[in-house]
Amino acid sequence: MKKTIYFLVFSFCILSNLFAQESKYKALTDVSTGEELNLFLSYYYTNSNLDLVPKALRYIHIKKINSNKETERHIVPFFAQVFKANDDKIPSWFEELQNLTDDDMYIFSHALFLSGGSNAKKVIQKFLDSTDNDELKQVLTKLSSDRQAIDLRTIPLTNPVYLDMIWSSFFATGDVSYLDRLILATDSNKKTVDEILIYSAARWSLKAVAKDHKKVFDFCISKKGKYSKDINAFLNDIES
């Protein structure tokens, strides 16, 4: 199992060459290995190849990646953004997936819920109708209601897990508003343990990802001088 989920927790930060890795991603025709899934989850925003989406979903299902709940912080926000941008594709994507496990339905339904589309809601209802698991039914019933989904661009960063979710959202969309949130989290004026953890993780991840993702590096450099003295010093450090 560890080999199939090695891409988690910022493994994309250690990729050696930006252009080589982007080229590898753009050359993908399938998602059938952990490395290919890693490339898909890391560089999808550079080229939204919709043909790869159902293949990634199938690989996640076949390899039982959703059985590890640590994947939720990555899989859910990433696919939520993909589903949000392609609600019309959702019926065909999930029609191809057969014999989903309870773990699959749990993880994918949260992504569908966050996407907020009409077809996404229909698939959640199909999950609800197909399961005999009472605990899962309770979750799916809540997700099929009119509950308001969180917006990671505005929600208070009270938990380090949110950083992983923000990164995953960025890698699905390329939306720099997510990067802006991460930069704001690097201010060192922190007091609580969680605030310090978030500050440390935000600084580490931004610096590491900027080495391998030109869009992240360019955005950080373009923002120099536009934040607090403390954050501006950190952005100067990214360039050095």
How would you characterize this protein structure?
It is built from 13 helices and no strands. The chain is an all-alpha fold. The radius of gyration is 18 Å and the shape is globular. The model is unreliable at 1-16 (pLDDT under 50).
Short synopsis of the structure:
With 240 residues, the chain is mainly alpha-helical.
Describe the protein's topology.
Elements: H1 18-26, H2 34-43, H3 52-62, H4 72-85, H5 90-95, H6 102-115, H7 118-130, H8 134-143, H9 161-173, H10 176-184, H11 193-212, H12 214-222, H13 229-239
Measured by DSSP, the beta-strand proportion falls in: under 5%
Identify the overall geometry.
Answer: globular
> What structural class is derived from the secondary structure elements?
mainly alpha
Nearest-integer average pLDDT: 90
Helices and strands, in N-to-C order?
HHHHHHHHHHHHH
Largest sheet: none
Helix content: 55-70%
Q: Termini separation (Å)?
A: 38 Å
Keywords:
disordered N terminus, 240 residues
